[in-house]
Amino acid sequence: MSSEVSRRSIGARPNPDAADAILDAAASLLQRKGLRGLTTDAIAREARASKTTLYRWWPNRGALLLALYVRRKGSSVHEDTGSLIQDVARTYERVFRTWQNEGQLFSLIIAEAQHDDGVAEALVAFRKERVDDWLPVLRRAEERSELVDGADLEALAESIVAHAWFYLITRRLGSDPAILAARVIGPWLRKNR
Amino acid sequence: MSSEVSRRSIGARPNPDAADAILDAAASLLQRKGLRGLTTDAIAREARASKTTLYRWWPNRGALLLALYVRRKGSSVHEDTGSLIQDVARTYERVFRTWQNEGQLFSLIIAEAQHDDGVAEALVAFRKERVDDWLPVLRRAEERSELVDGADLEALAESIVAHAWFYLITRRLGSDPAILAARVIGPWLRKNR
Amino acid sequence: MSSEVSRRSIGARPNPDAADAILDAAASLLQRKGLRGLTTDAIAREARASKTTLYRWWPNRGALLLALYVRRKGSSVHEDTGSLIQDVARTYERVFRTWQNEGQLFSLIIAEAQHDDGVAEALVAFRKERVDDWLPVLRRAEERSELVDGADLEALAESIVAHAWFYLITRRLGSDPAILAARVIGPWLRKNR
Amino acid sequence: MSSEVSRRSIGARPNPDAADAILDAAASLLQRKGLRGLTTDAIAREARASKTTLYRWWPNRGALLLALYVRRKGSSVHEDTGSLIQDVARTYERVFRTWQNEGQLFSLIIAEAQHDDGVAEALVAFRKERVDDWLPVLRRAEERSELVDGADLEALAESIVAHAWFYLITRRLGSDPAILAARVIGPWLRKNR
DNA sequence: TGCTAATCGAGACGGTACGTCGTGTCTTTTT
DNA sequence: AAAAAGACACGACGTACCGTCTCGATTAGCA
User: From the UniProt annotation, which stretches of this protein bind DNA (chains A, B, C, D) (predicted)?
Assistant: First the structure.
C-alpha cells in the first residue's frame, strides 16, 4: 500500500495517492478473493477510499479494471533465443503463468467491453499493441530464414496472439507452451532446415 | 411458441416443453429488448414459467444464455465448395453475420464462464465441438491434396476457430471473411497448386 | 413410523396409514427442525408420502398443523390436589413444559387462523374446550369455599387460559408456574382462610 | 408522505425520511390491499425506496410490520374517568375498534415472532410497555381505594392486557367491552363501595 | 380372469415473496 | 476544492414455499 493509515485531501486538487491506493487495493483483492471480490464497494473499502474518489478517477468499473490490468501486465518484451519457435514458447509460458493468476481479469475486461465502448476501444488498441510487439521478432526470424517465403508477418503475429487469448478463454492455461508454439508456428516454418 | 395457453406438469419428470418455452421467451426478449432485457425474471414471466422451473433446467443465468446461444446458432454444417479456403471464408462470413446480432451474447457467455464453472465447462465443450466440426472438412481437403504434407488437422481446426473468436472479441466482425480465411489457412496450403 | 419401507395403494379407497405417517413425520420434523422445517414438501418427503396424499387428507397446511396439535396435546385432565392454586400451578407447569417443545406450533396455528377461516373456527372451538375443562375443577373449589362469594367461574376459567396463552406468545414459558398461578387466582380467593 | 418527488442521500448517515416514507407506504398499502399486499417489494416500490434501504432500517419483514403497528396504534394514553372499570372498558372499546381493522397485522406479528428472534424480542418489549402504561392508572385507582388491599398492580395490569390479546386471537372483538372489563377487573375491586 | 376405479409415490409446475448483492449518484463533514 | 464515509435508488439474482397437476404402478372389487 502506498499509504498506510489514512489519506486526506491535499487541497483543491486530486490526490494521485488515492488512485494508486485504489489500484493497489483492487490488485490485492483480485489476488485474495478472485473476480467476485472485485466490486467497487470492496475496492473502495480496501483502499480506505470513498466510491466518490474511485469514480472521479475512472468513469466506471470497466475502466478501472483495464487500468489495473495494464498496470499489472508490465512490459511485453519478447526474448530472442535465436529460434522463433522457442521465443514463442517462452512467451506462452510466461503469459500463461501470469494468467494463471489474473487471466480472469482479462476475461472480465472482454466482458465489460460489451457494455462499455470505452473499454472496448481500449481493448482493440491493446490487441494492436500486442500484435505489433511481435513484428520485430518475426522480422529477425525472417532474416534468419526460419519462415517460409512470403510469410505474412502480421497474420502470423495475430495468430500467435489469437491462440494465447483463445487458450485463456477456454481455460487451457495448463497446456504445454512448447507444443502450442509448435502447432501455431509450425506451418509458417521453412521445411528444409 | 411450443405451447400457447397453459403448460402443466407431465408427471414426475421434467417437461421439455417448459425448457423450450423458456428458451423461446429468452430468444424473443433478446430480439426485442437486447441483452439488458434478458433477466431471469423477465424470461420466466415471458415464458409463463416459474423461476423454479428455469433454475431446474439451468443452474444459473449463464448456463441458460449458453443454451440459448447453442440453440440459436443452429447446426454448424460447413459447406463443401471443393476449396478449403472458400469453405472457411463462407463459414466466417456466416458466423460474422450471425454475430453482428448476437455476438454480445457469446461474449457475455465468455465473461460468465469466468465466475461460473458450469458455464466454463460448457464453453470448453463447445469449443471442442466447434473444432471437431471442422475435422471432416479438413480431411477432405487433405484428400484433395490441398494441404501441406503432415498437416496437423486438429491444430488447423483450432486455429480457424480461434481466429473467429478473436475477431469477435476485438470487434472486427466487419472484416473481409475471404481475406481473413486466406491469412489463417494460407500457410497450411500446398504451394504448387 | 407406522409403516417402514413402502406404502402402496390399498385399492379404490384412502389409506389411513398414509395420514398417520404424515402426522408422524410432521411431529418428528417439528421436534428435529422446528417450525421452519415444517413445510409441506418436507413433511411429505419425510413421510415417504406424496403431496397429493397430504392434500387429500387436509385442505391446506393450517388444517394439518391443527390436526397435529390436537393429536399431540393429549387429554387435558386437570389434577385435583384439594387446593385450586396448586391445581392451576401444576397445570401451568405441565402445559409450559409441553409448550417448551411445541408451543411454536400453537403460535403458528394462531397465525394460520388469520388466513384460513377453517383454522380460525377450530381455534375458537379449541378455546372453548380449554375453558370448559376448568369448570368442574372450579366448581369443586367453590364447594370447598376457596373462592370469594359470587365468583364468575367462567370468567375465572377464561382468565386462567388467557394467561397461559399470553405467556406462550410473549415467550415467558420459563416463568415460575406457582407464582403465575398465585397472581392469576389470587384476587379470586377468599381472604380469611 | 413526508417527501413527495425525490429523496436522496443526506450524507453518511441514515435518512429518517426514508424510514418514514416506507412506513407511510406500508400503511397505505395495508389500507388499500390488505395484508397480502404488504410485500417488501410493493412497500419499497410504493415508497420509491430501495429494498436495501428498507432492510437497512428493519432486519426483516416482521420487524417492519411491528414498527408499522406501533406507529399506527398511536399513543396508549388511558383515560381517567375516575372509575377503573370504566377506564378499562373504554380502552377495550378503543382497542377492539382499532383491531377490527388491523388486528390481523398484530396477529401476524405474533406469528412472525415465532421464527424471528428480533420480532420476538420486540414483541416482548411491546408487552412490557403496554403493561407499564397501565400502572399509573392503577395507582390512582388504588389511591381512590377502588382496589382490594394489597393488590398486585402489575399482575392486574398484565391481566388486562392478556385478556385483550386473548380476545383478539380468538376472534371475539365484537364482545361488549364493558362486560369484559367487569369480568377482568371484578375480583380486584373492593366490595363495600 | 379380466376390467374398472380410485389411491399411492414421485416430483415437476406456476406463482409469488423474500432477502442479498452490485453499480453509480448523491450529500455531509473534515481537511 | 477534494477527500472519506456511507446512504440512496434501481434492479437483478437465486431460494423457498404453497397448492395443483400428471404420470405410472398398485390394489380391491365387480363382471
Answer: 39-58
Q: What is the CATH number of domain A75-188?
A: 1.10.357.10
Alpha-carbon separation of residue B15 from A93, B23, B61, B70 (angstroms): 48, 13, 19, 20
Euclidean distance between CA atoms C157 and C184, whole angstroms: 10
CB-CB contact of C16 with C37 (8 Å): no
Number of H-type helices and E-type strands within chain B: 8, 0
| Interface mutation target, options D102, D116, D166, D192, chain C, most CBs of C under 10 Å | D166
- Nearest CA-CA distance, residue A14 and chain B, Å: 33
The DSSP call for residue A13 is S
| pLDDT confidence tier of residue C5, bands split at 50, 70 and 90 | low
Q: How far is the CA of C26 from the C1' of E12 (A)?
A: 23
Q: What is the pLDDT of residues C90-124, one digit of tens each?
A: 999 999 998 887 777 887 887 777 777 778 888 88
Spans of all domains in chain C: 16-57, 78-188
Burial D115-141 (b: 16+ CB within 10 A, else e): bbeebbebbeebbeebbebbeebbeeb
Separation of first and last alpha carbons in chain D: 52
Domain C78-188 homologous superfamily, CATH: Tetracycline Repressor, domain 2 (1.10.357.10)
Q: Cβ D163–C162 below 8 Å, yes or no? A: yes
How far apart (Å, rounded) are the C-alpha atoms in residues A41 and A26? 11
End-to-end CA distance of chain C: 53
Cβ of C108 within 8 Å of Cβ of D111? The answer is yes
d(CA A151, CA D117): 75
Q: What is the DSSP letter of C189?
A: B
Closest CA to C127 of D167, A105, D25: D167
Residues A119 and A132: their CA atoms lie apart, in Å, by 20
Give the pLDDT of residue A4. Answer: 45
What is the topology classification, in CATH, of domain C16-57? Arc Repressor Mutant, subunit A (1.10.10)
Candidates C102, C99, C90, C75; CA nearest to C180 is C90
Task: Tell me, yes or no, if B192 comes closer than 8 A to chain A by beta carbon.
Answer: no
User: D84-137 pLDDT, tens per residue?
Assistant: 999 999 999 999 998 887 777 888 888 778 777 778 888 888 899 899 999 999
Give the position of cell 400502572: D135
Say how many C-beta atoms besides its own lie within 10 A of residue D73's C-beta.
Answer: 17
Separation of A173 CA and F18 C1' (Å): 48
Closest CA to F23 C1' — which residue? B11
Give pLDDT < 50 ranges for chain D.
Answer: 1-5, 193
**In this structure, what are the phi and psi dihedrals at residue C189, rounded to the nearest 5 degrees?**
-85, 145
Q: Please name the residues in contact with B151: beta carbons below 8 A apart, sequence gap of 6 or more.
A: A187, B138, B142, B188
Residue A40: which H helix or E strand, with range? helix A40-46
Give the Cα separation of D128 and A70 in Å (integer). 63
Fold agreement (A16-57, A75-188): no
